C-alpha cells in the first residue's frame, strides 16, 4: 500500500507560479512511476506529468515548457513546479503512484489539491 498526500494548491493570478508537493508513505520501494493528473469541473481527468524512478519525465503538451516535475527520493516527495499559469490550468491536481511487483501493477491516488488561476 502507498499513501499520497498533496499540498501547495491555492489561488494565483494568471502568469503566476505555484509548487505542488506530494508526500508518499508506505511501500515506497515498490513505486515505479509517480505523476500528477488534473481534473477540471465537467472534464475528464488528464495527465499532467510523470516521472519514473530513473527520473525520466513526460509532460502533456499543454504544460510543456511551463511545468516541471521532480522528485526527492530522500524525502519520498514529488513536486510539480508550475509557472506562467493560465486560467485553463484551474483544476484539482491529483498525485498518482504506480507500483510494479511480480504479477501485479497497482495505481494509487491522493485526494487532490485545488489550483485556481484567476484575477
Describe this protein with a few key phrases.
119 residues; mainly beta; seven-stranded mixed beta sheet; four-stranded antiparallel beta sheet; 11 strands
Structure description:
There is one protein chain. The protein is mainly beta and about 120 residues long. Helix content is about 0%, strand content about 60%. It has strands spanning about 1-5, 10, 20-25, 30-40, 45-50, 55-60, 65-70, 75-80, 90-100, 105-110, 115. Strands 2, 4, 5, 6, 9, 10 and 11 form a seven-stranded mixed β-sheet that branches. A four-stranded antiparallel β-sheet has the order 1-3-8-7, with no helix packed on it. β9 (about 90-100) and β10 form a beta hairpin. The model has no long low-confidence stretch (mean pLDDT about 95).
Provide the fold topology.
Layout (H helix, E strand, L loop, with lengths): L1 E6 L2 E3 L5 E9 L4 E9 L6 E7 L4 E3 L7 E6 L4 E6 L8 E11 L2 E6 L3 E5 L2
Parallel strand pairs: 2-11
Antiparallel strand pairs: 1-3, 3-8, 4-5, 4-9, 5-6, 7-8, 9-10, 9-11
Q: What value does the Rg take, in angstroms?
A: 14 Å
Order of helices and strands: EEEEEEEEEEE
Q: Count up the helices.
A: 0
Strand content: over 45%
Count of β-strands: 11
Overall SS class: mainly beta
Oligomeric status: single chain
State the low-pLDDT regions, or none: none
Helix content: under 10%
| General shape | elongated
Distance between the termini: 40 Å
User: What about the largest sheet?
Assistant: 7 strands, mixed
Q: What's the overall average pLDDT, rounded?
A: 94
Summed up:
By secondary structure, the chain is an all-beta fold. It is built from no helices and 11 strands.
Amino acid at each position: 500500500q502507498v499513501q499520497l498526500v498533496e499540498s501547495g494548491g491555492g489561488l494565483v493570478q494568471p502568469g503566476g507560479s505555484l509548487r505542488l508537493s506530494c508526500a508518499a508513505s508506505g511501500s515506497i520501494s515498490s513505486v515505479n512511476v509517480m505523476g500528477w493528473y488534473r481534473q477540471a469541473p465537467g472534464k475528464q481527468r488528464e495527465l499532467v506529468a510523470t516521472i519514473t524512478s530513473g527520473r525520466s519525465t513526460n509532460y502533456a503538451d499543454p504544460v510543456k515548457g511551463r511545468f516541471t516535475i521532480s522528485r526527492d527520493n530522500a524525502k519520498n516527495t514529488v513536486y510539480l513546479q508550475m509557472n506562467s499559469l493560465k486560467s485553463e490550468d484551474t483544476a484539482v491536481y491529483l498525485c498518482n503512484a504506480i507500483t510494479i511487483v511480480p504479477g501485479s501493477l497497482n495505481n494509487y491516488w491522493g485526494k487532490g489539491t485545488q489550483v485556481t488561476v484567476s484575477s
